[in-house]
Specification:
This protein is α+β, with helices and mostly antiparallel strands and about 375 residues long. It has a single domain (about 65-210, about 215-355), classed as 3-Layer(aba) Sandwich (Beta-lactamase). Helices cover about 30% and strands about 15% of the residues. The protein is built from eleven helices and 14 strands. The chain has a seven-stranded antiparallel beta sheet with strand order 1-3-2-14-13-12-11, with helices on both faces. β13 (about 330-335) and β14 form a beta hairpin. The relative contact order is 0.20.
């Protein structure tokens, strides 16, 4: 059995066992974190950072988490709303006047956050490099017409989510989404998560590994709909080789190109589960967290082809809210239990060919720990982070 490093409170030993089993059977390298009341109770990792299994996965190893990044992007908008700088019920055009073009004057900020704005398609990029031109992409989105009446239907905004929310943040603050996140979220929390990764961190990155039997040309795409057919998505096809490139790391594509590990993902997300604080740092008021789990849309998602409940930036699943990324990473928070669970890995799984229960097994193991009596917990300053 592959060794698992890190710290794990005794009642959450099943989480450590679940990661160890996954490393033995499915994963190459991975990390898992569980935060309770804004403090870490599990922070573990193991395996290897490369496909050749020559370099160990270390405490500070980072990897691309793909759409798990959306959780971080949404949090930035909720922080601005909590500060009174952004009204979730205001038209997007109140902050971004050009956006009113093509009849979009009634698209609200909450429509963008809940994937109901009617803009799931990119405005025309055909290669990944086009995504790196922020001004061109956002200008194209501003000029587009919505595909449906905003708020009446949902369709997963896989790439456009980050550009839309990011441009709103830029118009309000004068800073890019990545800059705002770094200065207002990552820095005060001490979270090792990056949207736009500096070259100094490249040596810590574990490249994503394509699913078994597939190579680096493996590309992200929409899942099949209920009729088994796939909806054609216009725009850039993002491949594993693109996500592993230096250009992708430097870019700002805030729906999908964040880099972190389970510790940093869970730390950031736990702010919402713990009524605005984590590690003694307050980012939002308790009321400012509530849009993260209050459902704005419930019904079939036109892109995902399944029933979904969308909140202001997150998927809602039973008592939990959060989202996952292409290949397998995910984060989920339970505001009633004040618990957040994150799983980040480098071995991708193609869910069209194979069931991927890795993250869900970690979450279920964490809930099992909640049901066990807690030992006396040391002070936060005495625990390893």
């Amino acid at each position: 059995m592959i060794d698992v490093s890190g710290v794990c409170e005794p009642r959450f030993v099943a989480v450590r066992e679940a990661l160890a089993a996954s490393l033995d059977e499915h994963d190459v390298g991975a990390s898992v974190a569980v935060y309770l009341d804004g403090e870490p109770v599990v922070d573990i990792w193991g395996g290897y950072a490369d496909a050749d299994r020559s370099t160990g996965w270390e405490r500070d190893t980072l990897t691309g988490v793909n759409s798990t990044t959306k959780n971080m992007t949404a949090l930035c908008a909720l922080i601005l709303a909590d500060r009174g700088l952004l009204d979730l019920s205001a038209p997007v055009a109140a902050y971004w006047p050009e956006f009113a073009a093509a009849g979009k004057e009634h698209v609200l900020v909450r429509h963008v956050l809940s994937h109901t704005a009617g803009l799931p398609q990119l405005p025309g990029p055909t290669v990944v490099e086009d995504l790196y031109d922020w001004e061109n992409v956002t200008a194209g989105l501003a000029a587009q017409a919505a595909e449906w009446e905003p708020g009446t239907a949902a369709g997963y905004h896989a790439l456009t989510f980050g550009f839309l929310v990011g441009e709103i943040v830029r118009r309000v603050t004068g800073r890019s989404l990545g800059e705002f996140f770094a200065e207002e979220v990552a820095k005060p929390l001490g979270a090792d998560f990056h949207i736009g990764l500096a070259a100094e961190h490249d040596h810590r990155v574990a490249p994503l590994i394509a699913p078994p039997s597939l190579g680096d040309e493996y590309a992200a795409g929409p899942p099949p709909g209920p009729d088994g057919m796939r909806r054609e998505i216009v725009g850039a096809a993002i491949r594993v080789k693109d996500v592993n490139s230096p250009a992708w790391r430097r870019a700002h594509v805030p729906a999908v190109n964040g880099f972190g590990n389970a510790r940093s993902v869970a730390l950031v997300h736990s702010v919402l589960a713990n009524r605005g604080t984590a590690g003694g740092v307050r980012l939002l008021s308790p009321q400012g967290c509530e849009p993260a789990w209050q459902v704005l849309f419930r019904g079939e998602d036109r892109i995902l082809g399944t029933q979904m409940s969308w909140t202001a930036g997150f998927g809602r699943f039973g008592n939990t809210f959060g989202w996952g990324g292409w290949g397998g990473s995910l984060v989920a928070s339970d505001p009633d239990a004040r618990m957040t669970v994150a799983y980040v890995m480098n071995q991708m799984i193609d869910r069209d060919r194979q069931e991927d229960d890795r993250g869900m097994e970690i979450i279920m193991a964490a809930y099992g720990g909640l049901r066990r009596p807690a030992a006396v917990r040391p002070a936060a300053s005495d625990r390893s982070r």
